[in-house]
Amino acid sequence: MRRTLRFVEGATIEQGPARADARQNRARILEVAAEALARDADTSLNAVAKLAGVGAGTLYRHFPHREALVLAVYRSEVQRLVDRVPELLAGSPAVAALRTWFAQLAGYIRIKRGLWDALTAAGHDAATAESYGPVIGAIGALLAAGEADGSIRPGLDPDDVLMLMSSVWRVPDGEQADRLLDLVIGSLRADAGQRDQRDERDHPAC
Q1: CATH class of the region 70-206
Q2: CA 199 from chain center: how many Å?
Q3: Is the pTM value of this prediction over 0.90?
Q4: Second label for 67, Cα 20 to 30 Å away, from 59, 127, 154, 169?
Q5: CATH fold label, 12-64
Q6: What is the C-alpha separation between 131 and 138, in angstroms, rounded?
Q7: What is the residue extent of each domain of the chain?
Q8: 121, 117, 99: which is closest to 168 by C-alpha?
Q9: Other CB atoms within 10 Å distance of the CB of residue 122
Q10: In tens digits, what is the pLDDT along the chain, a chain of 206 residues?
Q11: What is the 3-state secondary structure (H, E, C) of the chain?
């Protein structure tokens, strides 16, 4: 039997099998929409519902309009990337985890350009504002881990690192992108800072 909890504000939360089914439907819609919109930014909501195996009414109950669906997909995909940070740090040295994470971020941005194209100007602003904090937080956690284990130079600003990394996803995936990523990661290593200091001593400015 379905139970409903009522709060003073009048909001309701359904519990039980119906609620679980709703969560599963929502997750399935987001998964399918991410792939469909990345392929074709003009994919209709009805097409997404069909691909997800749900009725149009079910989709519209979760996402009343196109912008709501696209923003939810964008949030979900960004959060998935952010949530990978602890896993990467647990399995690799911090500098290697940082490289892997940025490679995944670059790949995500390249693949999801169709998703970005499906947003209005207001949607772009909302997506940027919402994703900036989590992404900067993830970069900060990776940098802090690298500073702690001595692999990444101290005092780096996560915002500066994100700006530096933007060069990688501005080029197509391939050898050039890999070289750019290696250059960026190399500049963040702790021994890069030591090399800079040696260069200054060996070649003082005139």
Answers
A1: mainly alpha
A2: 37
A3: no
A4: 169
A5: Arc Repressor Mutant, subunit A (1.10.10)
A6: 11
A7: 12-64, 70-206
A8: 99
A9: 9
A10: 444 333 233 333 344 556 888 899 999 999 999 888 878 878 889 999 999 999 999 999 999 988 889 888 888 888 999 999 999 999 999 999 999 999 998 888 876 776 777 777 787 788 888 889 999 999 999 999 999 999 999 999 999 999 999 888 888 888 998 999 999 999 999 987 554 444 444 445 44
A11: CCEEEECCCCCEEEECHHHHHHHHHHHHHHHHHHHHHHHCCCCCHHHHHHHHCCCHHHHHHHCCCHHHHHHHHHHHHHHHHHHCHHHHHHHCCHHHHHHHHHHHHHHHHHHCHHHHHCCCHHHHHHHHHHHHHHHHHHHHHHHHHHHHHCCECCCCCHHHHHHHHCCCCCCCCCHHHHHHHHHHHHHHEHHHHHHHHHHHHHCCCC
Spatial distance between the Cα atoms of 80 and 65, rounded to a whole number of angstroms:
23
d(C-alpha 170, C-alpha 176), whole Å: 11
Give the C-alpha separation, 181 to 177, whole Å.
6
Which residue in the block uniquely carries the two structure tokens 């990467």?
88
